[in-house]
Design goal:
The complex is a heterodimer of chains A (about 450) and B (about 270). With about 450 residues, chain A is an all-alpha fold. Chain A is built from 17 helices and no strands. In chain B, about 45% of the residues are buried. Classes of the chains: A mainly alpha (about 450), B alpha+beta (about 270). Chains A and B meet through helix 6 and helix 7 of A and strand 2, helix 4, helix 5 and strand 6 of B.
């Protein structure tokens, strides 16, 4: 057998597959405990019914639906980085494409499960397939998200193939399961010119195809709300507003996950400050667009002063939801923008803090889309106040932890950095005008 | 008109009107057909408990030549807010605690407070039916918006879509316990048992219509404020008197709740002041 040459890049990236380290297991333990709490809460809900949530007849959608919208939004990280940046030939994307695509897949899985958790009769889930009515926006979502999940899985898998072949060839022979797994998944990849050509073509096609699918996904999510006769939902800006918000929180999530993975697996030499800087600047750009859309939405609703609009806006601006609303605007949009702008995104911690603020703000944004509209009276019915119950909070915590756990499990079996793409890009050093002098 | 009739009098056991009330021979014959058809429908439904698809295509009453167009007319001037209609509805359907299929709203206007009983509007352009992902809620040919509780997945989209806050959800285990699924899958059967995790609402007492009877709220109203009937046959009845619907609609200032939304409700109101 020929001597196996492992480059330093491969060594760094493959180390977590073999020896993920103590911290890895510690974090897995904590996340698993939180997921267990969420699972327990769900079992309670299955036994007792949705009565264990705080939802009631008038506010009949709450935290679950908000979290569904949030996670489906996050899934746009992958499309942005791997598809849009690929199409625009941004070479710097290469070390972070894999992470972005993994985020997409897992966010979709977690997001879709939130809807199932919200169902009164999860046992009848397959009725969607059996009796599906194409006139219902929920069907549009079902179709669109299915497409997106399939496409994203494919888009995660295709660029993995050369790396899987590397793993197949370079894994220690005693790791028999791993070798078997990688041999199967590598699909006889030999790095032949013909194979490379085909892979490139497939990736190029996927990049173009997945962009409209991704845009459609969050557009139809917004249309679930937009197609109703309700104040605050029945708005033409909803499609674009949701898509921009989705990319915004997707970038924020990618930044957070990048920072965590980089620290955990010592990838400082591969995921560099320039990645944080570039994503930070994109975060800023989307922040500004979202502020503009948000202003558009609320100003158009408030200026004419129609009764229902006024009642809804009063709840947001000065009523029950005002603390959350102003936290969203200031803490979720303005402060992160200032943070990134002032530091010119040169400081990694500043970008990461901004990203965390953005994601908290964006979750609140989703909540404020769902709940206040339902809390705005449309008849003289009595509306029971809604504040999520412990079951809902536990399931939310479980969902977030589950998302992290899926990512960590992925990191245990697959390289989090696309080795072959980074190696290809390596000869020409990345231009890092700012990043090189910046300590993180 | 004062307090009409004796509320304790046995009425509404049948929508069959007293002879002197019948304006034309034509409608009397129609009326008698109701009961005959209803009998056949009950037998058919009893023998095939899973004939759901058949029910979706069929009318709850009427004949193939003549389709019903069920309509309700509520005279708000007569309504004194006693909520006996709510009670009758609750009793008829064993409506779970905390829910109202029919709700009497108290509204304040410049002229003082008045009451607005709100059943399901059975819209001709129902926003709830539009959004249902599994066709669990549907509109029958004769204009009833019903729910197939055996199919509903409990996504509650219809509740979000209904502008009238009509729909209610069974958040918890029903009491009495739900029957095995096979026993009551028919959305136009009246039943006292409820299912967890599905949406329910006013069904214009479709099970009574089959038997040629008036809805429970109509019978329960001591003020005789609620009329029910068939717009195609052009009459509504509160159990005592019959009105020609077209005459009422053209001569009185009737309105429909949130008419501007384009939902085309099948419930008309006669305003307090006209």
């Amino acid at each position: 057998m020929a001597k196996i040459v492992v480059t330093s890049l491969e060594k760094t990236v493959m180390l977590p597959l073999v020896r993920p380290g103590r911290w890895y297991w510690a974090i897995v333990g904590v996340l698993a405990a939180i997921v267990a709490l969420g699972a327990y809460a769900y079992v309670v809900q299955l036994q007792e019914g949705l009565v264990v949530t705080a939802m009631r007849d008038r506010i009949s959608w709450g935290l679950y639906v908000s979290t569904f919208v949030f996670f489906i939004g996050i899934s746009h990280a992958g499309t942005l980085v791997s598809a849009i940046l690929r199409v625009t030939n941004a070479e710097w994307r290469k070390p972070i494409t894999r992470l972005a695509e993994a985020i997409t897949v897992f966010a979709l899985i977690v997001g879709a499960s939130m809807v199932i958790i919200d169902l009164g009769r999860p046992d009848r889930l397959l009725h969607i397939v059996q009796f599906g009515r194409i006139e219902s926006p929920i069907l549009w979502d079902f179709i669109s998200i299915s497409f997106y999940l399939t496409g994203s899985l494919l888009y995660l898998y295709l660029p993995l193939i050369p790396d899987l072949a590397t793993l197949r060839d370079k894994m220690p022979s005693k790791a028999r399961f791993r070798r078997w797994l990688y041999t199967r998944l590598a699909a006889r990849w030999q790095g032949l010119p013909e194979q490379r050509r085909r892979l490139e073509r497939a990736l190029g096609a996927m990049a173009i195809l997945i962009i409209p699918v991704a845009v459609s996904v969050h557009t139809v999510v917004s249309w679930i709300f937009g197609m109703t006769l309700r104040v605050g939902w029945h708005s033409t800006i909803f499609g674009p507003l949701f898509v921009v918000g989705a990319i915004f929180s997707g970038i924020a999530t990618l930044i957070i996950v990048m920072a965590a993975v980089r620290k955990l697996f010592h990838l400082e030499g591969i995921i560099k400050p320039i990645h944080f800087r570039n994503l930070g600047l994109m975060l800023l750009a989307l922040d500004v667009i979202l502020l503009y859309f948000t202003l558009s939405e609320y100003l158009t609703a408030s200026y004419p002063g129609e009764t229902q609009d006024a009642a809804w806006l009063a709840l947001l601006g000065s009523g029950e939801f005002s603390a959350m609303f102003w936290w969203m605007v200031i803490g979720g949009f303005i402060v992160p923008a200032v943070f990134v702008a002032v530091t010119k995104a040169k400081s990694v911690p500043a970008v990461v803090i901004a990203a965390i603020l953005v994601n908290v703000g964006m979750w609140i944004e989703r909540y404020l889309i769902v709940v206040p509209t339902m809390a705005t009276p449309q008849t003289p019915s009595v509306i029971a106040a809604y504040w999520p119950s412990w079951v809902e909070w536990s399931i939310l915590a479980g969902a977030v932890a589950g998302f992290g756990l899926l990512l960590l499990a992925f990191c245990r079996f697959f390289p989090v950095v696309s080795m072959w793409e980074v190696a290809e890009a390596a000869p020409t050093p990345l231009p890092e005008p700012f990043a090189t002098e910046v300590a993180d | 008109m004062g307090r009409p009739g004796d509320p304790e009098a046995p009425r509404g056991a049948s929508v069959k009107p007293r002879e002197e009330d019948v304006p034309a021979d034509e409608s009397r014959r129609e009326f008698l057909k109701w009961a005959a058809f209803a009998g056949a429908a009950v037998v058919a439904a009893g023998s095939t408990p899973f004939a759901l698809e058949a029910i979706r295509g069929e009318e709850t009453q009427g004949t193939p030549e003549r389709t019903r167009r069920w309509t309700m007319l509520i005279d708000l001037r007569r309504c004194d807010g006693c909520k006996k209609c709510e009670v009758a509805c609750r009793k008829e359907h064993n409506v779970p605690e905390g829910q109202n299929w029919l709700k009497v709203f108290t509204l304040t206007a410049a002229s003082g407070t008045f009451f607005l009983p709100r059943p399901c509007m059975h819209c001709e352009n129902p926003p709830c039916v539009k959004v249902c992902p599994v066709e669990a809620t549907f509109r029958t040919k004769d204009g009833l918006v019903l729910i197939d509780e055996g199919r509903c997945i409990g996504c509650r989209y219809c509740m979000a879509a209904c502008p009238y806050d009509v729909r209610v959800f069974n958040w918890q285990k029903p009491n009495p316990p739900e029957l095995p699924q096979a026993l009551s899958p028919d959305p136009i059967h009246g039943h006292v048992e409820h299912r967890q995790g599905v949406v329910e609402k006013c069904m214009f007492c479709a099970h009574r219509l089959k038997d040629g009877r008036l809805p429970a709220c109509v019978e329960g109203c001591p003020m005789l404020a609620i009329y029910f009937g068939d717009a195609n046959e052009d009459f509504v009845s509160n159990g005592y008197e019959r009105l020609r619907l077209s005459t009422v609609l053209s001569s009185q200032q009737t309105f429909r709740y949130k008419e501007e939304m384009g939902t085309e409700p099948r419930v008309y109101y006669l305003p307090v002041r006209r």
